[in-house]
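Notes to self, DNA-directed RNA polymerase RpoA/D/Rpb3-type domain-containing protein:
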Amino acid sequence: MKNKIIKNKIIIKNLNKNHGITIGNSLRRILITSIKGFAISAIKINNIKHEYESIEGIYEDINNIILNIKQIILKIYNIKNINKKKIYIIKVKLKNKKQFLAGHIEKFTKIFKIINKDFVILNFSKNIKIDIKFFITYNKGYIPSNENILINKYEYKKKIKNLIKIDSIYTPIKNVNYYIKKNNNKENLFINIITNNTLSPLKALYKSTCILLYYYNNIINTYKKKKDIKILKIDFKYFKYLKYFNNEKLLIFLKKNNINNIKEFKKKYKILFKNTKNKFLLKLIKKIYLKYKK
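result:
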């Protein structure tokens, strides 16, 4: 049975000319790369040492089983239980079955729901017992098995032997495309989002918009609160005294007096005293001079 997917067309109307492609491209990139989800990142099968083995009584070899496991779609019941630093472990024991379906995993966990319950993981050729541990992590995008830091640390810390690591596909987004229709002097942006049914396309769009807003708000807040000091920080970032005297008024004052490094500061130290009557600035200037006069 094919994995369940849901798709939706979302329309953003009355955009200014050329804004459609800018917004559409930004949202598409965030949707594809930055929406988080769950994936099975490793497995441990009793008496199996590596992925190139086969199991007596099972038609598929371990490599084919891994390919099937990568297609299992997991959804957490309660989002409050999400912990990006945690490895969720599900222990599954099966016997006297003709097939191992993804839905069988649900019987061994109260945390996760399996979306594609009828998906076949493996087929039994005779009545045998199989014990599998599934190691599940939460992240975004795609992470190769050898680069999964959380799993690698866990394996090293717990000294786990015969752990078979899996490339993890976390993203719940199956596909995103957009197109623009002109409406007089305005543009309408049409976004088609297809997900794996762990979240709706509208929720995915909401999450991607929140991610963009987070970065835009950082820029806005920087401009509003620290626009002068931010510019000066760039000019002064190499000078040690800044970490002790990172004061907006002082930095503006130094800049106005064409002081860009500690050498210039020492040379113009006396001139600085003449150029200001501000007691607070005078105190800071004296502190800097005493600290770096040698």
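- Confidence is low (pLDDT under 50) at residues 227-244.
- Helices lie at 19-34, 62-69, 149-158, 201-236, 248-256, 262-267, 269-275, 279-292.
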